[in-house]
Amino acid sequence: MLKVYLHGNFSISKIVIGCMRMHEFGLNLQQRTDFVEWCIDQGITTFDHADIYGGNHHNEALFGEVLQMKPELREKIEIITKCSICVPNDENPNIKTRYFNTDRDYIFKQVNNSLEKLQCEYIDLLLIHMHDLLVNPKELNGTLKQLKDEGKVKYFGLSNHNPLEFDTLQKYVDVKFVTHQFMLHPLGIENYKNGTMTHCLKEGIHPMFWSPLAGGRIFNPKNAFEENMKNVLESIRQELHLENIDEVIYKWLLKHSSDPVIVLGTGNRERIMRALNSIGGIQMTREQWYKILTEAGYELW
Fold first, then answer.
1. What is the CATH number of the domain that holds 16?
2. Where is the NADP-dependent oxidoreductase domain positioned along the sequence (predicted)?
3. Count of alpha carbons within 13 Å of 283, Cβ hemisphere only?
4. pLDDT: which is higher, 146 or 88
5. 3-state DSSP assignment of residue 88
6. Rounded to whole angstroms, how far apart are CA atoms 246 and 21?
7. Residue 92 banded pLDDT, cuts 50, 70, 90
8. Crossing angle, helix 104-118 and helix 59-69, to 10 degrees?
9. What are the residues facing 89 on neighbouring strands?
């Protein structure tokens, strides 16, 4: 299984398990533990969380129960989590409106909550989940440095920022942002259009793609655009002699020279294996790759 080195000796697996829907997997504790161990056996060692994931922000705790049951798994995996999104729900009864928060006290509170829920002493990679328009970059620098100095977080990155937002924060922050996580799939190529993918190349960043299958819309198109894309993917699937169109998408995402990482938000083992198998083997041509890009709405000239 390929590893992607984000900074120095720090690496994550090429395929990451996204835990946003873990509460929907319908797994009891033993089944969750078996699933995590199965992923590790396949070479998938990285699990992606956020403080807001799950019913009333409970998914980190679901994963933490696995580590409490088998604490020896902690040193075999990399844990990613995120913070900055505040949403109204039972966990936050005083919040009435969705907003973003990167204040020092808030980030410290969320990191400590995540550590408690995850039943671990440190987070491998903390991402600022969304760009806070009220961010104080100098204060954020002090916050991240203290988290690192205290051993609570080893590495840092950003999620869902545009290139200007990324560069502005990095200018003020002494710790290096080692990755950038954002959405990319054949029905949503905004991060090709706005220069985010080129920015990753410029900065030597391995991007992480969430929602690679557009939340399942790839398989169940709702309009003419989505139906056309499914037909394009099916045509290329036949040309490449692959079994499923999700394999076409994985190969399309992985072809970029930034050496990206795919975040899979599924507990379906067959789909996970297809993603793993897509890393090697037959590769799509440049013409096939550009066919998907242009049908997705990218104008070459």
1. 3.20.20.100
2. 14-291
3. 8
4. 146
5. coil
6. 19
7. confident
8. 40
9. 92
Whether 272 contacts 35, CB under 8 Å: no
49 vs 19: CA distance, rounded Å: 5
Q: Which residues are catalytic?
A: 53
Whether residue 294 lies inside any domain: the answer is no
203 within some domain? no
The whole-angstrom separation of Cα 74 and Cα 121 is: 10
Confidence (pTM): 0.97
Please give the Cα distance from 299 to 154 (Å, whole number): 40
Mean pLDDT of 127-132: 98
Query: Over 90: is that where the pLDDT of 57 sits?
Result: no
Tell me, yes or no, whether 37 lies in a domain: yes
Q: How far apart are CA 121 and CA 134, in angstroms?
A: 30
The answer to the question of residue 67 being in a domain is yes
Q: How far apart are CA 299 and CA 301, in angstroms?
A: 5
pLDDT tens digits for range 233-285: 999 999 999 999 999 999 999 999 999 999 999 999 999 999 999 999 999 99
The domain of 13 spans 3-183
pLDDT score at 218: 93
Listed in sequence order, the residues at least 6 apart from 126 whose beta carbon sits closer than 8 Å to its beta carbon are: 80, 81, 82, 83, 111, 144, 147, 153, 155, 156, 157
Q: What is the CA angle 202-208-210, rounded to 5? A: 135
Whole-angstrom distance, CA of residue 85 vs CA of residue 123: 18
State yes or no: pLDDT of 1 exceeds 70. no
